[in-house]
Every structure is written in structure tokens, then in C-alpha cells.
């Protein structure tokens, strides 16, 4: 223990001190004693604070053993959770900071305790050892989505302090006992979608007074929908075998899409009307005469629909021909674009303590055909203004279309239309857009406005004339092509690193804060500052598209083991650095946003650079390199470090960003 010791007062050199000297000594002694007491008091307070915010060695050991015991019950836990094998003593070493950062994959920390476990998209299987998790006294959130767990519903009710449970997209099956959620009075968010559960919705779940989110779609639940507490703000029960009337309260917070695929349901918001017994019937069925009239009407409608479809196809073909002449911008704003079953891999389901404790339901803004604006001081226009604007097609990408719209006042905007967000609920989408709206950094392209519909979403940004870094590096030599000399490339990479560091700081609970970092998603403004585009969209993208199309999921650890961590973005940054410095396109499929095999292609591309002499890999078109070779080599080496196959040896984003900022334009 640290001790604070003050030296004793020195004895007076005079054998016969004067009265004044004696008084001075007495005052000095008293001051020293008071000062000593103050120091001791401060020391005690300091030690008490540290003690309050620290775990005892026994508690640290218990949490570590609980996690290791949980891992041992998983069939492939040793392979996927490799850095749990030889861990430091404490899973959550950053005592008192409240930071969720930890060296244990998937472990979320809060004030020195294990607060959450997020092991999504890791191909895990085996038994979920709830008894081991029960030893984590501060565990509040558990997410095991998109894995291969199967069998009956585990005894999660033993985790009485749990606030959020996410087990979507596994192979759980069978009835869930009525008392499966008894005693879980703090439970707020339950996502059970995309499994094979049967039987009635558990009564103990319906009686939970804290429940705010329930997703049970794409199961085989039967029977009626119980009356849920009015704390509920998100509900989806589509594609089950439910029957009977829909409780009126649910009509207030959902739309018909939350109940589709349940033929036995009736009442608002769906069209089936309940009869006196509570069974559904079709109010439009009638006599044979009515059927004949309806049949004739159906034929007429089909003919009109066919004519409209032909007209639409012809119009789209003309737009396509117009768009082909703008192939560079097409790639900038479309092919490079990327926007779940519950949420996408790497999406944020582990919320903060404050978010889980909030009792205020999120407001729904921007419905009924209205744009929602995210900046108070930004421009204002309505959806009709946007639709009436002079527009040109920028491209048709794997995630949707992109258009350039010029408003009446001359302002140029980019409107990106996404169809691969259909599994994201209305409230989730609005919440995530507000999160994006709060982000503000010189190296992020801000989201101006958005529009929500179940089938499609629109995101609106300012138009950036210079286009993307990819276009400037690999596009045809035109008058619009910028000169990317060494100082400019260093400036761009520094800006990208700053933007990435900001995302990692502001979104600590997201496993993959960007998710699709590549040269076509880095725009360059008139001052040669980079602007990151299509960032932080994983939580709202359908999982299949995210896995097939987004760059982060082409990293070697995900290709090999399905492992997801924050170092996926580090790998993407490494690829971007090497591309910028060499002028070489990493892989044609990466540029075009194509799925499947380009993870292995990129690995070979990196190996080809590693095999060359460092000085020989620089882009021959890069100018103004005099007295800069040393700094250029350092940047290449940072890029190669980021592309390290062994994820444990790959640096953290914060460390990479700091190294890049230390580089100079010239060697010293």
C-alpha cells in the first residue's frame, strides 16, 4: 500500500529560542500535523475510490473463470474465441472508466465488470451454459445472433438482471415454457426471430412490465397474441401461425407488416375483420355475382398494370442509357454504396446502460411521406421538392440506385435509394438515423435527410463534385482528374484515419463502426480533404447482403472462421493505404462491390505487394516525392501492418491513427 510520510520538523539550532522563535516552531508543528492529516485523509479517500471502482482479485477470478467455462461449452469456442485462451487476469481492465473496450473478443465492459456479451455471426454451436453466465453478476445484455445454436430455449430466467436478450437467426426449436421469463423483471429487449419456436407466446413474457422490444417473426408460434404491457414500442410477429384478434394497443405502435403471414389473425391494422367469435373472415367475399364482377375488374386491372409495366421498363431503359455516359459518378455513388434478420453482423445491439434504462419511447418523425432532417441549421425542402428537382441517374448499384438532384436554388444533392434494409423495423431505422445525424466530423460526409418506407429507404447527402478517391486513382485522365501527389495522398490518408478514429470513439459499442471502407467510399472535396461515405450502416442492412457485399467481411479472419471484431475496419484501412500508395486496384470485384471470393483475391494482392522491394511499389504517377522516401516507406509499412493476417498481431485503430498523424511530408 502506498504511504505518504512527511519528514518530522527539524529541531531548532538555537539552545535558547526566543519567544517569537518558540511560537513559530509551535505554529509550524501544528501546520505540519494538519498537513499530515490532510494528506492521510486524501490518501484514504483515494484508496476508497479505487476500491469502490475496482474488483477484488476473487471477483476478477470469478468473472474470468465464468467466461472460460462458458467458452468451454461451445463446440468451436477455442477456435473462434482464440484470445480467451491465454487472457490477462481481468476481462475488464479499464477500471472506473465505463469504457466497453477489452481484449476479450465480444466482451463489453462497464465500470470494471462484464456488462455484455456479443458473439454474433461467429458460427458458434453447442450448449449455452447459462449456469456459468449466472456468475457474472453485472451481465445486462447477451447477444448470440446469427449462429448455429439449436435445441430448446435455454434457461435464461436464471439471469435475473438481464435487460436485453438477442438470439435471432439460430436453430432453436420447440415450445417455450410459460414461466421461461419469470423473475426477469428488468428485461426490456427480447429478439427471438428466425428460429423454429412453436407453441404459445409465453405468458411470463407478456406479463413483463419493463418490455419495450419483442421480435418473434419467422417462427412457428401458435395461439393468440396476449395483451402486452404498454411499455412496448417495437413488436414484430410476422410469419408465424398466430390466431385471433390483434390487441388494440399493438395497432398504435406497428403496421400491418408486423402481422403478415398469420392467416388466423384479425383486426386492425390488417384487413381481416374479426367475427363475433374472434375468428377472421374476408369482408370482400360474397355471392357468385359479386365474384363475376370482381373477376372482370381483375382482368381490367391486369391489362392496365401490364401497360404501366411496359411503360416503366421503357423509361428505365432510357434512364439507363443516359446514366451510362456518367460511369465515373455511377461508381462513386452507387457501386461503392452499402447500406437483418434482426440487425446486421457487427450492428449495435449492445446498448449503453442509459439507453436500456430509458423509459421514453422514441418518437416517429418523417412518416406519411415526409423527409426527416437531421441538422437544425441545414437546408429545408419537402419530398415533393426533391421529386420535382432536375435529376440525373448516377448509377444502379448492388444496394440500390443513386441520383443527383439539383434543387430550384441550385443546391446539388445525392439521393441514394436502398432496398436492402427491408428487415429493419421503423423505430430501429429512425433511431439509427438519429445516431448518424449526431455524428459531426470534418472527414465524414454528413447525412442531410432521410425517408422511410418498409420497402425502401432514401438517404440524402450533399453532392461532392470531385467524386471518389477511386475515381481519382483509377479513372480516365480527364480535365476533372486531380493531381494526387505525395502530400495530397498523405493528407487524404490522414483525414481518413481521423474520421475512422472519430467513429471508433463515438460508437464504442459497434463492433464494426464503418463496415465498408474502400476507395469508392472516400470522396474528395475541393480542398482535397477526404469525406467518408456509407459509414455505420451495418445495423440497418439485411444480413445476407452485408455478408456478401461489404468490404469488412472480406477480411481473412471472417473468410476463414467467421470471426467479427473491430479489427475488420483496420484491415480495410490497410487495403486503402496500399491502394493509395501503389495506385493499384486491389481487386476488380472489390471495386465493383461483388460478393463471394474477393477476400482471397485481396489476400493475394497484399502478398504481391509484400513480395516487392518497398521502394518499387510506389505509384509511378505520384509526384513531389523528393526528400520524402522515408515517410512514404513508413506509410506503406503501416498499411502492411493493418493487413496482418493474424488478427491478434494486427494493431488497434487508435494506434494506427496515431502513427499516421505522426508522418510528415518530408524526411527530417
Automatic annotation (TrEMBL):
Residues 1-18 have a biased composition (Pro residues). This is Protein kinase domain-containing protein. It comes from Lactuca sativa (Garden lettuce). It is found in: Membrane. Residues 388-663 form the Protein kinase domain. It comes from the Eukaryota. GO terms for cellular component: plasma membrane. The chain crosses the membrane at residues 296-322. Keywords: ATP-binding, Leucine-rich repeat, Membrane, Nucleotide-binding, Repeat, Transmembrane, Transmembrane helix. PANTHER family: LEUCINE-RICH REPEAT RECEPTOR-LIKE PROTEIN KINASE PXC1 (PTHR48007), POLLEN RECEPTOR-LIKE KINASE 1 (PTHR48007:SF67). Pfam families: LRR_8, LRRNT_2, PK_Tyr_Ser-Thr. One of its GO terms (molecular function) is protein serine/threonine kinase activity.
